[in-house]
Amino acid sequence: MGEIIGTIIFGAIIGALARLFMKGSQPLSILWTIILGVVGVVVGNLILGIFKYPTDTPGIDWWRWVVCTICAVVAISIYLAATGRKSK
Where are the transmembrane segments (predicted)? Predict the structure, then answer.
């Protein structure tokens, strides 16, 4: 249960970071930002798992943050393209 809550919190932070790094403003609600951030976290962790990246690293795991943020940017871009919404 704690892992699910941690993933949701991490996803909210990653989703907000992804929107911050994207050009323009995105017409997304907070709920969709969290959902797409969680998608970015899950996909990012799967990608890192494929490359056998260690899960227990000391300190802040910068590579995990970068990969998950990039995945969230891609997830948000796909969502905006699929729904026909455009960045302003």
Answer: 6-22, 29-50, 62-82
Annotated domain spans of the chain: 26-87
Residue listed under structure tokens 């991490």: 10
Rounded distance between C-alpha atoms, residue 4 and residue 24, angstroms: 31
Could you read off the pLDDT of 36-82 as tens digits, one per residue? 999 999 999 999 999 998 878 888 888 999 999 999 999 999 999 89
Q: What is the mean pLDDT of the chain?
A: 90
Cβ-count burial 37-54 (b if 16+ within 10 Å, e if not)? bbbbbebbbeebeeeeee
Element at 37 (helix H, strand E)? helix 30-50
